[in-house]
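> @MW can you paste both from yesterday?
MW: sure, first one:
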Amino acid sequence: MKALKRMDPLSHLFLFYFYSSIIISIFFLLIITVFRRTRRLSCKCDTCRCFVTGGWTSSFPSLPDWYTHLLRRSPTSTIQIHVLRNTVTASPENVEYMLKTNFSNYPKGRPHSVILGDLLGRGIFVVDGHHWRFQRKLASLELGSLSVRSFALDVLSSEIRVRLLPLFSHLAGDGSPADLQDLFRRFAFDNICRFSFGVDPVCLRKGLPVSEFAEAFDLASRLSAERALEPAPVVWKLKRALNLGSEKRLKEALDKINVLAETIIRERRKVGFSARKDLLSRFMASITDEKYLRDIVISFLLAGRDTVASAITVFFLLVAQNPDVESKIREESDRVMGQEDQAQLPTFDQLKDLHYLHGALHEALRLYPPVQIDSKYADVDDVLPDGTWIRKGDKVSFHPYAMGRMPQIWGPDCLEFRPERWLDKDGIFCPVNLFKYPVFQAGFRVCLGKEMALVTMKLVCLSIVRSFDVRLVGPVGPPRFVPGLSATLKGGLRAVVRRREWCGGRYTRIR
């Protein structure tokens, strides 16, 4: 110590850089080791041993398609990627075991909450135990109330009539291609912000203004999801500690989200919230912790915006490729609602009679679920119903995207878009076991907003299909998705829109 004190400043600087270089070298050696290890992923199943070197994109459109390929080859519909301690299954029996039978052994887990914790905090999608039970009970009471459902329907109807349909009319008059995915994301963001916060970001207004909050929310969602793609958690954690790269941008986006959310909550408390109908105001009656309120409402914002926008986007992708389905939806709506007023929105009772539309939406979600894979972490050693051994701490994932493509679940035509598979001989919609269709989760974590989401999707899709023709632009190949918390089409969904008009007892397309 005395010798160190006698050293001149230049020597101290030399020692600092010397030890720093050693630490940095060790860090990069660790990164290279992990990277090399994860470039060679092994899948063990009863009949195949698959090795992927350098990437799957040369043979498959996307990572979910690669998983689907492996799961279809496995006789148990389960694979284990041992180097990642990750088990992936497309077996309905395994899904039921994880989400219901042995639910307590498969929580979301700490790794999940660490990755998404900066964005979602203690929100319902990243917590277990007491916090999960409390939020689920609170959300169940609120989302199930007649007043909340009525308020949600009023907001939705207003957004469709005042913004969505006029914007589509403008696109039809202009004739230029537009990115429908962007429009549906804007629509869903306006709708869920009005419902959740009682705040209107007006993203869908004419001119499509940029919302700082929406941009920050999109960036934070994407960068949070990309943490899971890092070769090792230490990579993004170190970048966060040093405030570098993607973690610096994530922090800046989160700061914007937090400032807006906290401002809304404080202002709402000042002016009073008891008379307001939005979700935030109703939650404020039960929760005084402003940070906890922020986490809960941001979680609902994420679920209500991204999943709905994704579902509507893939619906129009598939319907545009299947004009016979589009015709049947129009025929059904004409029979239920009449033909003359195509801008009319269906009543709640009429919605219940639109069985073919309901089947078409479920079929679109079967092929392209908004959440393509969902993961849990095992609390203790276990064995799945198909005999797969699970170690404590293992990641165990079920794969809705792959499950929608399994012949043993949906038959040999599982890759076809066929809404009729959801209807009985009388044309009545027939639901299936949610454990073979976990698009809305299942068991104890089944989505509480499922019915409200389906109503939103049906109203939006029907209002556009009745009034407009939507035709895709350019070559249409297998969809590719951007890595994220929900399925987003890479490059968007470019299409041209043409208005349909009632003329001479039938609809014609106005060019």
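MW: second:
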Amino acid sequence: MRFGINFFPTVGPAEKPADRYFAECLRLAEVADELGLDHVKTVEHYFHPYGGYSPDPVTFLAAAAARTASVRLVTGAAIPAFTHPLKLAGKLAMLDNISRGRLQAGFGRAFLPDEFDAFGVPMDESRERFQEGVEACRRLWTEEDVRFEGRHYAFGPLTLLPRPYQRPHPAILVAAAFSPESCAAAGRAGHGLMVVPSILDRERLQGLLAVYREGWAASGGAPGAEHVHVSYECYLDEHDSSAAYAAGRAYADNYRAKLAEAVTAWGRTRSDQYQGYERLVEGVKRIDYDASLREDKLLVGTPEEIAERLRRIREHFGEVTVSLHVNSGTTTVERAERTLRVLADRVLPEFTRPREQSPAAAR
């Protein structure tokens, strides 16, 4: 298993100014690099305290690249529907060069109606725009004199500059929520997969991973070489389970409150591209912290308890890459740093292997 940190802000100006939040996250990126963690990842969202402090993951990761040496930099995820592929491919290629080959390019479809409305993009076009955007980026990274003719984007012939540092291109990861078809397509294309266990029961997630891995095998991918990212909220107390559970509850309640506000528009929105999402408003209200703990959807407890949860996660889902939410903006940076250091010292060595040589070091 590999481990990194995922910055998903659930905070607004009334709680913490943006400059302070970014400074804290960059400090934690340095700690992750020092500790030999696998990656630093951040999201793309807009307008709401749910993710809104991160409208451009590339900007943050470029700053992180300047402060780190080896940790991978993951867009988790960039949204092709909101950025023309010529712009997106160029920004990502630039980041890949700035970091000397540490980029992993994660792409997602987005799911918040308010964001689509603000950009003037119909939600019913999201799948096509996602597919065209990812394919256009891949071709721009790997080909010259590219002529692209899609339903939503058309350009060329032209050659992208700069060329990516990694050849043939940075690893591509695809975010998926509920769709087996999306997971299978990611596997067949040879892409990595990003999933969020907190929104799925164990059996359903196991099913999604099975169809992804079947697609990966069908693409000729080596068994065990597929790349699956799973994200978990993490709250640790070195000595006291009850203190960890209480603090973790406050952390989880804040996340749920911010998510509930962000999905309100689903109460009046319908889209064939997002079947069942109209139930999100009620679904968020039913999220149960204690049940999530019992089902290992959260990494909360003492180091020993978190280690046991990770053993069960590995048993259920295999050798996945775990993205840890240790700082949503409401936790102090000191506590988040202490969590990372205790995990690195007392928990992660049981599960990790040495970090692979980066492309920069290999040259």
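> thanks! The chain has a mean pLDDT of 92.
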